[in-house]
Amino acid sequence: MQIEERSAGDVTILDLKGKMTLGEGDEILKDKINSLVMQDKKKLVLNLADVPYIDSAGLGEIVRTYTTVSRQGGSLKLLSLTKRITDLLSITKLLTVFETYDNEADAVRSFSSSANV
Known about the structure:
By secondary structure, the protein is α/β, with parallel strands linked by helices. It has a single domain (2-103), classed as Transcription Regulator spoIIAA, CATH 3.30.750.24. Helices cover 43% and strands 26% of the residues. It has four helices and five strands, in the order E-E-H-E-H-E-H-E-H. Helix 1 (26-38) packs parallel to helix 2. The chain starts with a strand and ends with a helix.
């Protein structure tokens, strides 16, 4: 799996590409998130448009990432879920935990609106 980092204002967008499975992607994501949190980047969007498959280890890593960022006072949102990933999150009831967006601009905008609540 590959991760490309971009910024939109103070929001960090991570474009994930490839399968997120045990030993392939889960460690990469963990290291990336830890490094971002250390740099005080806590508004994160995971773009999953190019992730064709997530296994239980990959799913566990997304949940762990969400917990890590939340504990640091940050926020993690998911962008461009494929039907397979949407179904997976729905079956596991995680769809109710994550904020998900189909449109990058909406995901980025959601950070500023949630700060004003």
